[in-house]
Design a protein that fits this description.
This protein folds into two domains: about 150 residues, Rossmann fold, CATH 3.40.50.850; about 35 residues, no CATH class. By secondary structure, it is α/β, with parallel strands linked by helices. About 35% of the residues are buried. The chain has a six-stranded parallel β-sheet with strand order 3-2-1-4-5-6, sandwiched between helices. The protein has seven helices and six strands. The longest helix is centred in the C-terminal third of the chain and has 15 residues. It starts with 14 loop residues before the first strand and ends with a helix.
C-alpha cells in the first residue's frame, strides 16, 4: 500500500536537489536574476546535510546532430523568428566551459551529472534511474528558465510520481512568465517553497 508522505516533512535521505541549467553560458542572465547567492547557499547546505545534488545541464553537439527539429514561433525573448531570421538548426558558438555549471557551485564527483539534450532533465537521461537507485522520493528544483526547463522537469517528475518542490527564490527567467508559473501554475501541480523554508524542513 502506497502512503502519501506527511505534508511539511522533508527527509534528507530521500530528497534530492536538481540544479537546472545554472551554466556559464547563461551567467549574465543568471546574475541579473539575483538568485545565484541563494542557489549557492542551498547547494552548500544540501551537501553538508547529505542531500543528493544533481546538475542537469544542456549538452549539445556543435554540428546540431542532437538538436531539436521542433518548429517554434518565437525565440527565447518572444521575438518571432520570421522577424529575426530563421530558427537555428544547431547551437550557436559555445565557449569551452559554456555547458559547465557555474564555478561558484563547485560541481564535483560526489554530485550527479545529468547532460541533457531536451528541456526536461528526465528526457533521455539517466536521472530517473539514478534517483530510484538512491531511493529518492522528493526532488527540489532550482534554475531556469522557470517557464521552460524548470516547468518541463517539474511536469515530468510529477508524472513519474516524485514529490516536487520548486524553490521560488532559486528560479531564473523572464520576470512575467516566472511569476505566473510560480504563483499560478506550479501551486496547482506541485509545491512551491522558498530556500529558507526547505532548509528549515531539512534541518528538522
Amino acid at each position: 500500500m502506497w502512503n502519501r508522505p506527511e505534508p511539511g516533512v522533508l527527509d534528507r535521505s530521500t530528497t534530492a536537489l536538481i540544479v537546472f541549467d545554472m551554466l556559464e553560458i547563461y551567467r549574465p542572465a543568471i546574475e541579473r536574476s539575483g538568485v545565484l547567492p541563494t542557489v549557492v547557499d542551498l547547494v552548500d547546505f544540501c551537501r553538508a546535510e547529505g542531500v543528493l545534488v544533481c546538475f542537469a545541464r544542456a549538452d549539445h553537439r556543435p554540428d546540431g546532430a542532437d538538436f531539436t527539429r521542433v518548429i517554434a514561433d518565437t525565440d527565447r525573448d518572444f521575438m518571432r523568428w520570421d522577424q529575426q531570421g530563421s530558427q537555428p538548426t544547431r547551437p550557436g558558438h559555445v565557449a569551452a566551459d559554456g555547458y559547465q555549471a557555474l564555478a561558484e557551485l563547485r560541481q564535483g564527483p560526489a554530485d550527479i551529472d545529468v547532460p541533457k539534450h531536451r528541456w526536461s532533465a528526465f528526457h533521455g537521461t539517466a536521472l530517473d534511474s539514478t534517483l530510484r537507485v538512491q531511493q529518492i522520493e522528493t526532488v527540489m528544483i532550482v534554475g531556469g528558465s522557470t517557464h521552460v526547463g524548470v516547468a518541463s522537469t517539474a511536469y515530468a517528475a510529477r508524472d513519474l510520481d516524485y514529490q516536487v518542490i520548486v524553490v521560488r527564490d532559486g528560479c531564473t527567467g523572464h520576470e512575467e512568465p516566472r511569476t505566473f508559473f510560480l504563483d499560478t501554475v506550479f501551486p496547482r501541480m506541485v509545491q512551491v517553497k522558498t530556500a529558507a523554508e526547505v532548509t528549515t524542513l531539512l534541518s528538522a
